[in-house]
Amino acid sequence: MGYKGKKIWASFAVHALLIIISLICILPILWMCLISIKPTSESISGFQSIWVAEPTLDNFRKLFDMIPVGLNTFNSVFTTLMGTATSLFFCSLAGFAFAKYKFPGRDFLFYFVIATMLVPPEVGAVPLFVIMKKIGLINSLWSLIVPRIATAVGIFYMHQYISDVPDELIEAARIDGCRDFGIFYRIILPIIKPALASWAAVTLIARWNDFFWPLLYLRKQAKYTLMVTISLLPVSEGLSTPWPVILAGTTLVIIPIIVLYLILQTFQKSGMMAGAVKG
């Protein structure tokens, strides 16, 4: 067997391995979706559970009767979109300041921000809860937005992109009479669109999947996000656990984020490629 033949077989083996791994990852999601449309009378264990004899949407109807799905979905969408928008604005603004302005203590402050990435966010849960309580944001959707309007990871991410913007562009804008915020809005933001799109994709997915902070700050079901309210579904109904209804709720949470990721992965790739090209 020549070199070309070995290369073809190696490529075939790699692709076969990747397909097997992909199927292993997809199977639990497929099983969950199939169980969510099965009648509660059908078996949900064993390989035969993959076969759905009589598909039904009764599990979703029961789910909507048990919890305020529409209201909780609105809470998730609101906190996800507002959290992403504020993170994009403030992280890019801070990244611009650290990258293009010189002020006393800039390097120390920037490295301090980077150092906070080493600390797990949950470490600050108690102090943050006390602060949110004192300013009256407990049981408010804004408690999921305000504490994270800017993150160390986001600031560092934007700083790396903005550092590559030529200083000559900024100086030329100043000569033309453009003020600082105008430079940020008219010069910086259009240039770093790939970075903004990539960070938006990451932040959208993270905010939608957020569970710990909503569970900590929110106290009423009407304020819960979809992720929290699905996790609090009753695990028993009489003598049996309504797994099809629970998995219907899980499907309702997971499918939108999978679709969102498939749509946004193009922006993530373009953002990474833009960041990899220098000069």
TrEMBL record:
CDD domains: TM_PBP2. One of its GO terms (biological process) is transmembrane transport. Its main location: membrane. The chain crosses the membrane at residues 12-37, 74-96, 108-129, 141-162, 183-206, 243-264. Residues 73-264 form the ABC transmembrane type-1 domain. It is found in: Cell membrane. GO terms for cellular component: plasma membrane. SUPFAM superfamilies: MetI-like. It comes from the Bacteria. Gene3D superfamilies: MetI-like. Keywords: Cell membrane, Membrane, Transmembrane, Transmembrane helix, Transport. It is a multi-pass membrane protein. Belongs to the binding-protein-dependent transport system permease family. This is ABC transmembrane type-1 domain-containing protein.
